[in-house]
Write a structure and sequence with these properties.
Keywords: Signal
Largest sheet: 8 strands, antiparallel
Shape: globular
Oligomer: single chain
Helix content: 10-25%
Strand order of the largest sheet: 1-2-3-4-8-7-6-5
Strand content: 25-35%
InterPro entries: DUF3515
Number of helices: 3
Length: 150
Amino acid sequence: MHRRPRLTALAVAAATLALSGCSSAVEVSAAPKASDPLCAKAAQQWPTSVSGEELREVSVDSPTVRAWGDPAIIARCGMTSPGPTTNDCIGVSGVDWVARKLSDGMAFTTYGREPAIEVLVPKDYAPEPLVLGAFTEAAQQIPQGPRRCS
């Protein structure tokens, strides 16, 4: 039985942006563990641009959340690192990411790092994994634990 995917964070951000009219801020919330000191360290390494897209204003006043481009590529530090999964796990520049297909793009979460970084990439930037290299320096601020992709 196929279930229809629930409305994703990417879709919510896009819908909120579209409905907000002249507001240019991307609607997004801070991750549950955003106050972790490692997220502050990672946030200092957010890229200035991603796939040629410039930084956008976000609705939350937290350095642990950033967005680039339109539609927005969104990054948040402070997620729970995923456990073992059947989802694809890919390594990019020494950082492991678990990939989840969304109806409107892909979500990537660092694997084996706690707290985790989540990157939401709209399908407009396909192939979506190519943007992950921009987040290597930020992700490497959080130590790699024993879990690895391979």
